[in-house]
Design goal:
Elements lengths: L1 E6 L8 E6 L2 E5 L26 E3 L5 H4 L2 H6 L5 E5 H31 L11 H7 L3 E4 L5 E4 L2 E7 L7 E9 L2 E7 L22 E5 L12 H14 L4 E4 L5 H14 L6 E5 L1 H12 L6 H8 L10 E3 L3 H7 L6 E5 L9 H8 L6 E4 L8 H6 L4 E4 L2 E4 L3 E4 L9 H9 L7 E5 L3 H13 L4 E2 L6 E3 L1
Parallel strand pairs: 3-4, 4-5, 5-6, 10-11, 11-20, 12-15, 12-16, 13-14, 13-15, 16-19, 20-21
Antiparallel strand pairs: 1-2, 1-22, 2-3, 7-8, 8-9, 9-10, 17-18
Helix pairs in contact: 3-4, 3-7
């Protein structure tokens, strides 16, 4: 068996690993590079032949894990994309939205290139490519044995990171000997809204494991209360609250939190969700209520929709988005993208960042090189849509709302194995962070490998 790494190795985006076994080529995720990770055009480069890939095993729908599947299809991939049912449903809306964005951004660039007489660019993929790639998706339930071929079967376990997110157990008959590989995907936090806690896996010969927050623990305390207190303080000052949020996952969790406080009358301001994708994704969440955690199911049984409440408004188009700026009273604006590197959130930050009454609350990881990371790093000025803006708004970071397990969570999950795996292969983490987690794991007696793009490991 051979493992090759082409993304999400020494960085946190572009997850893409190949498992080669018995003449079968399996791609573990096919994600898009974001922020500084993709600043040299990495998204257009597959250092392998897409036509030779037999399967894509997709851990979950976030764009840094799924975002290049339409491009893989465009470049000749004709195999199967294997995922949970909920992941398949989320990708239906997310990848089509991504294709639309690719086309619009390319056209925006080409407008200026045409004026300069330069050669026009081609989008990474189109809306049509995304639609066609969905024909290759096959959805399955958690804990179901899935036979890929005579020598390979898999099971999806709940990763607790996003609706439909999966830890993948791969059972491989390698020349008569069964070996087990565990791919963690992105591990979630415990006790998060809506989503169940990550499943325990009890054994595995080799573990490919994420390391996003491998060097730190999320701040202790009730992050629900922390979020609400910041909101209340900002609204009392007549300011606006801006929450950069991924349309899928984090937005729904924030709505779930706000729901309780709105119903108790503690928050009375208007809440805008400025992302058509978020509205579609929220409907997918509602269609998959059977995989919610017990607390969310209890609310539903009481007739309370935890993703809907008074004064909540989803925008439908660009005109609706622009109207938010003319809203006179204080409000909460939830908008994508979560790292502020694209989407409507850039306009809301542009319009609110210089007013000290306003607050910007980060609730997810900010990749190196993104606008979100620059604001979080407390740069005095940032460039947004070609304009230099002073950072006068209050900036907060609530790590407890992150979809990723922290160092303690990662260690708790791997320590749940009955006996040490032969090798732990750390991916999906900035190299400095990954190095610290590796040291911790090695001190506990684990054999750790830290691959970079292009590295190959024989198992």
């Amino acid at each position: 068996m051979l493992l090759e790494f082409y993304g999400g190795a020494g960085c946190v985006t572009g997850s893409c690993h190949i498992l080669k076994v018995n003449n079968t080529n399996i791609l573990l995720d096919c994600g898009m590079f974001q922020g500084k990770d993709g600043h040299k055009g990495e998204n257009f480069n597959f250092p392998f032949e897409p036509r030779k890939i037999d399967y894509v095993i997709l851990s979950h729908g976030h764009i840094d894990h799924s975002g290049r599947i339409p491009y893989l299809y465009k470049m000749g991939f004709e195999g199967k994309v294997v995922a949970t049912n909920a992941t398949k449903e989320l990708c239906e809306v997310m990848l089509k939205d991504s294709g639309n964005i690719q086309e619009m951004e390319c056209e925006h660039k080409n407008k200026y290139r045409r004026e300069k007489g330069e050669e026009e660019l081609e989008p990474l993929y189109t809306l049509k490519d995304a639609e066609n790639s969905m024909k290759l998706f096959y959805g399955y339930d958690y804990n179901k044995e899935i036979q890929l071929n005579k020598s390979i079967k898999i099971k999806f376990r709940d990763a607790g990171h996003l609706l439909g997110s999966a830890i993948t157990e791969l059972f491989i008959n390698d020349n008569g000997e069964e070996k087990k590989i565990v791919y963690s995907g992105d591990l979630g936090n415990k006790s998060r809204p809506i989503i169940k806690d990550p499943s325990t896996v009890y054994n595995g010969d080799y573990v490919i494991m994420e390391s996003t927050y491998g060097d730190e623990n999320h701040k202790e305390g009730n992050y629900f209360v922390e979020l609400i207190e910041i909101i209340k303080e900002t609204i009392n000052k007549k300011g606006n609250v801006i929450i950069p949020c991924f349309s899928i996952g984090r937005t729904q969790e924030i709505l779930y939190i706000l729901n309780g406080y709105v119903e108790k009358g503690e928050i009375k301001c208007k809440v805008f969700v400025d992302s058509p994708l978020a509205k579609e994704a929220t409907e997918v969440f509602k269609n998959n209520e059977f995989v919610f955690d017990e607390e969310a199911k209890k609310l539903l049984n009481l007739g309370d929709d935890p993703l809907d409440f008074k004064n909540l408004s989803f925008t439908k188009n660009v005109e609706d988005s622009k109207c938010i700026n003319s809203h006179k009273d204080s409000c909460i604006i939830i908008s994508s993208s979560g790292m502020c590197d694209a989407g409507r959130i850039k306009y809301h930050i542009l319009n609110n960042i210089e007013d000290e009454k306003n607050s910007i609350i980060f609730v997810g990881y900010q990749c190196n090189g993104t606008l979100g990371r620059k604001i979080l790093n407390k740069d005095k000025e940032v460039k947004i849509l070609g304009k230099i803006k002073s950072v006068n708004a209050k900036v907060y970071n609530i790590n407890g709302l992150s979809g990723h397990a922290d160092k303690k969570g990662i260690l708790s999950w791997i320590d749940g194995f009955e006996g040490n795996p032969k090798k732990i292969i750390l991916v999906h983490g900035e190299d400095k962070v990954r190095e610290k987690l590796a040291q911790t794991l090695e001190n506990k007696g684990y054999n750790v490998i830290k691959p970079f793009p292009g590295d190959k490991i024989t198992l």
